[in-house]
Automatic annotation (TrEMBL):
It comes from the Bacteria. The lineage of its organism: Bacteria, Pseudomonadati, Bacteroidota, Chitinophagia, Chitinophagales. Pfam families: DUF3667. The keyword Transmembrane helix applies. The chain crosses the membrane at residues 87-106, 217-234, 241-262, 282-301, 313-333. It comes from Flavipsychrobacter stenotrophus. InterPro entries: DUF3667. Keywords: Membrane, Transmembrane, Transmembrane helix. This is DUF3667 domain-containing protein.
């Protein structure tokens, strides 16, 4: 931005006090201009910063999508100014992902009297211990009823009824539960009482609780993913731990992109079974594409043969999937217990 403002004649940086050897401070990078600015200067600063950021954002997005492993390799070579900082990139991509995810999940559907009556008739025959969210077509209409499946004894004071039933059961009974099972099924009974009249509200609040915990799933799994990469490539001294972390961050940014694609596919409503099959196939392709992307990124970044890369990719993929599944299940249980 040199030439936009009046340059100072003094050669002492106003920001850090270092002696200047040019128009920019070699210590902190501040430009050596007069501190007094008008409103136009502030506005111009803002748009220049936004434009500069946008350029980095779209360049980084282009490379992370089209050239797996490229940005991580550039980072390890010291070429960093032209791209978004990996941490900032992760925070930005995750923020976009979670905002869109939250907006898509938070939808409330209106319940008509016909749907309510049909749902009530279904609930009269509920016998299961497990809590489930189901859909059924209302006879004689084109409407769909959402309902919770649960034991029909639970709609009134479910926790007390559950405790009463458990006390009367002999220890040898198959219906007698202990420990974590007792905790889980007791929460199911409480949820059945609270939400059986409004299953949509149950799903909304469960999704809201889970969405708030979703960032923790990635936050917990990311260092574990990095650690496994470090262990598998331990003999390669040129790949320091931070390099593995940067590779993981860029891969997770792409996971957010794949996640958004899957959500957008899930939002498409079609009538024909053929189109449903097409969309399901497309969704499966996107999901599998995430793992193909990981293989290509590992092959290019670590520069090993295809077979060694395939073995390490398989270990990494199984570990990545297992961690996500386990942490996701725990987060859903936590979300359900918060509602209960």
């Amino acid at each position: 931005m040199s030439g936009h403002h009046h340059a100072r004649k003094e050669n002492i940086c106003l920001n850090c006090g270092a002696t200047l050897y040019g128009h920019f401070c070699h210590v902190c990078g501040q430009e050596n201009n007069e501190p007094r600015e008008n409103a136009w200067h502030i506005v111009r600063h803002f748009f220049e910063d936004i434009t500069h950021f946008d350029g980095k954002f779209f360049d980084s997005l282009k490379y992370v999508i089209t050239r797996p492993g490229f940005l991580a390799k550039e980072y390890t070579k010291g070429r960093r100014v032209s791209y978004l900082n990996p941490i900032r990139m992760y925070l930005l991509y995750s923020a976009i992902f979670f905002l869109i995810t939250f907006s898509l999940l938070m939808k409330h559907e209106h319940t008509t009297p016909e749907v309510a009556r049909f749902r009530d008739s279904i609930e009269q025959h509920n016998e299961g211990k497990m809590l489930g969210y189901n859909k059924a077509t209302v006879p004689g209409t084109d409407q769909t009823a959402d309902y919770l499946s649960f034991g029909r004894v639970y709609p009134r004071d479910g926790a007390r009824v559950f405790d009463s039933i458990q006390r009367t059961l002999p220890d040898t009974s198959a219906r007698k539960v202990h420990g974590m099972e007792d905790f889980f099924y007791r929460n199911v009974a409480k949820l059945s009482t609270a939400y059986h009249r409004d299953p949509n509200r149950f799903m909304e609040q469960l999704n809201e609780q889970f969405t708030h915990s979703l960032s923790k799933i990635f936050f917990i799994s990311l260092p574990l993913f990095t650690l496994l990469l470090w262990l598998m490539y331990l003999r390669r001294k040129e790949q320091f731990f931070v390099a593995h972390a940067v590779f993981t961050i860029h891969f997770y940014c792409m996971v957010f992109v794949f996640g958004l694609l899957l959500q957008l596919i899930n939002q498409i409503e079609v009538e024909s079974d053929a189109m449903v099959t097409v969309l399901q196939g497309f969704g499966l392709s996107v999901f599998l594409g995430m793992y193909v992307y990981l293989y290509v990124a590992m092959y290019r970044f670590y520069n090993q043969g295809w077979f060694k890369t395939a073995v390490k990719w398989l270990i990494q993929s199984i570990f990545f999937t297992a961690v996500l599944v386990v942490v996701t299940v725990l987060m859903y249980i936590k979300a359900m217990s918060n509602l209960g």
